[in-house]
Amino acid sequence: MSYENFKIETDSDGIAVVTWDMPGKSMNVIDLSVMEEWEKIIDELVADDAVKGVVLASGKKTFGAGADLSMLQQMLGEYKQKFSEDNEAATQLLFDNAYRLNQLLRKQETSGKPFVAAINGQALGGCLEMCLACHARVMADDAKVALPEVKVGLFPGGGGTQRTPRLMHTQEALQFLLKGGNMHPGKAKANGLVTEVVPEGELVSKAKELINNGLKGVQPWDERGFRLPGNKVYSPAGFQLFPPANAIYRRETQDNYPGARAIMKCVYEGLLVPFDTALKIESRYFAQVLRSTEASMMIRTLFMSMQELNKGARRPKGIEKNEIGKIGVLGAGLMGAGIAYVSAKAGIDVILIDRDQEAADKGKAHSESLEDKAISKKRSTAEKKEEILSRITPTDDYSKLSDVDMVIEAVFEDSNVKKIVTEQAEAHMPEGAVFASNTSTIPISDLAKFSKRPEQFVGIHFFSPVNMMMLVEVIKGGKTGDKAIAMALDYIARIKKTPIVVNDTRGFFVNRCVLRYMSEAYNMLSEGVPPAMIENLAKQAGMPLGPLQLNDETAIDLSHKILHQTIRDLGEDAVEKRHIELVDAMVEKHGRLGKKNGKGFYDYPEKPAKKHLWPGLKEMYPQQKADEIDRQEIIDRFHATIAVEAARCVEENVVVDVREADVGSILGFGFAPFTGGAISYIDGMGTKAFVELLAKLEKKYGEQFKANDLLIEMAKNDEKFYDRFSPTGEPQKEAA
How far is CA 262 from CA 129, 270, 499, in A? Predict the structure, then answer.
């Protein structure tokens, strides 16, 4: 029998090698067609007496990327459609669909014949679960495995929560499931997740060897006398594991993620019952989580939208791809040095310019230190380090920009300084090269006035630290041409980061939102909300860093410069008086610049001592009693001040694609990922309820919570942003 997604070859020893190679796809994924064919293959090979074992291999560079999330969205759509007719039948349908993969993989592992997975590249999500349902796994020595579903609001629903804690110690299994990160070959073997690790070219031969040496077609948990690697739940070891594991789970997630919560429940409950019952428990929880608002929003933003943006959804049409071989970076400080590093790492030659050779050399040394850290963690090699460093040329000579494709300016957040370096660079740049400014807040149209060719002037806003932050904000000035936008997006794709494209305004999109977050913390400080409460409740709201710590990371003196630049540009009324008083006191009176000088809202003592909130902070304002403060209201203030600013950006046409508002808010500063982003937060709550919340907060705390006209109009019919605006961001009807 022939199949569309698989090829079968049986050797003289009776071992069938099944090669999974989906046509027209760069990576294998589990969809309905794959499940249907895999079940037929299992039936065919089990019924064939000449076949004594099966090797499952991939015909692509990587084993597989997991389940097709569009299939899950289809399942959810069928459920919602049926729900209006018959609640009980709809729920049963969703469970049956969720349980189907578990039934299929259980059929595979109880077939009586040994199955061995040959894992190359990466095996992720459901594809790894297929491997776990094999009786042995052979992994290439440069491969990786992961169950990353928790990162998009779900959890492994193909037996992953049940097989991992039966193959490896429960504590290791919980970390693997809850973090969703990669596990490398050595650790995978040490933990019992894989059987053998070999060079990629030996995968299939080693898999055959295992079968020829008598591998049994029975899983350990199906044999008599099986003992859990981490011992029983109701045992001294179990009592020592689960209470602290639950405490760690609460600390890390604040219980905001239904998928993570379900992992804890599935592992705990599943280890108490027989394996087949455990799989049903997992499928019930999976169907429950799939229905959650959090999963729906996270799948849309962190998978579908990110994938579309990374593939160039916002790239101008009809412009040929730019092959970027060489760039110039102006400013070798932390930001410029980081840009130079990620560019060189992507194979681009970099001219790194600063005021003198010593400063430029210091910028290059940053790349060396990053590579040294990577080598110490076995994520790089001495050869790769030398290759990267050889691409960076530190200098104070602007004439070396004569053959670059693009220049990225990353100097101080001062218009006068930016004017000087722009003019110096353009005196030497090729005629067709693009000039990009990494400004944090100054409008690109204002900076483009310093350029002789404003149509080739664009904003490329990185986030710090550059090597770790995945978002890059591309800003289109009033005269920026499509070719400059295309060049910026091609460059961002080359360095493997996620772009959003926004129209020009002070602070652009991400900083407009994040400054609202920090500004609300300033408001709370001045109101006498205890600093520790501000930070802790921000984390309960789902933010990775409290606003005070975030301000320390970005530098308080940068906030000082931004506020004073705003006053120079727009006048004193453009900045709230209590904010400028706070920041001036921190910087000018107390010399607290942030983490970079070890003194900010936090104190940063030398290790091993840990950072802690500066005691003097609570002495700056009379303190409220913590027990009398409404905790949920503080959480609502953090969410609402960011979300309403995002809605204003949509109305003002700063953001023309709502997907970018969501992706940008999460990747840019970590806005509560469980909400799906700042716009999805509003959609999840409903615009009517959100406007009502804003009215309550505005009355009590001020105009920063005032609903804009677009929100007010949408609230009349409880309209959602993703319904009102098409996927490309073009309004389906006029905004207010």
Answer: 17, 11, 32
Per the residue annotation, which of 169, 366, 461, 560 is the catalytic one? 461
- Rounded Cα distance between 94 and 40, Å, is 23
Question: Residue 356 is encoded by which pair of tokens?
Answer: 């003198």
| Residue-number span of the structural domain to which 132 is assigned | 6-291
Contact 624, 530 (CB under 8 A): yes
Torsion sign across C-alpha atoms 594, 596, 597, 598:
positive
Residues 247 and 205 in one domain: yes
612 is catalytic: no
Phi, psi values for residue 67, rounded to 5°? -75, 150
Regarding whether 520 and 403 lie in a shared domain, the answer is no
Structural domain contains residue 316 = no
What does the alpha-carbon distance between residue 631 and residue 702 come to, in Å, rounded to a whole number? 18
Distance CA 69, CA 465 (A): 31
- Contact by Cβ (8 Å): 210, 195: yes
314 within some domain = no
Q: Say how many C-beta atoms besides its own lie within 10 A of residue 65's C-beta.
A: 22
- Model confidence pLDDT, tens digit, residues 187-240: 999 999 999 999 999 999 999 999 999 999 999 999 999 999 999 999 999 999
Please classify residue 213 by burial: count the beta carbons closer than 10 Å to its beta carbon, then call 0-12 exposed, 13-18 middle and 19+ buried: exposed
Task: Tell me what percent of the chain is helix, strand and coil, each rounded to the nearest 5.
Answer: 55, 10, 35
Tens-place pLDDT, residues 35-59? 999 999 999 999 999 999 999 999 9
Cα 676 from Cα 463, distance rounded (Å): 20
Give yes or no: residues 273 and 365 share one domain: no
Question: Are 19 and 141 in a shared domain?
Answer: yes
User: The domain spanning residue 41 has which CATH number?
Assistant: 3.90.226.10
Residue 439 has pLDDT above 50, yes or no: yes
Same domain, 424 and 546: no
Strands 136-140 and 115-119: parallel
SS3 at position 347:
coil
Q: Are the C-beta atoms of residues 159 and 280 closer than 8 Å to each other?
A: no
Residues 28 and 79 in one domain: yes
pLDDT digits (tens, 9 = 90+) for 364-414: 999 999 999 999 988 899 999 999 999 999 999 999 999 999 999 999 888
Average pLDDT for 442-467 = 95
Instruction: Please indicate, yes or no, if residue 223 is contained in any of the structural domains.
Output: yes
DSSP assignment string, 571-587: -GGGS-HHHHHHHHIII
Residue 269 contacts residue 276 (beta carbons within 8 Å): no
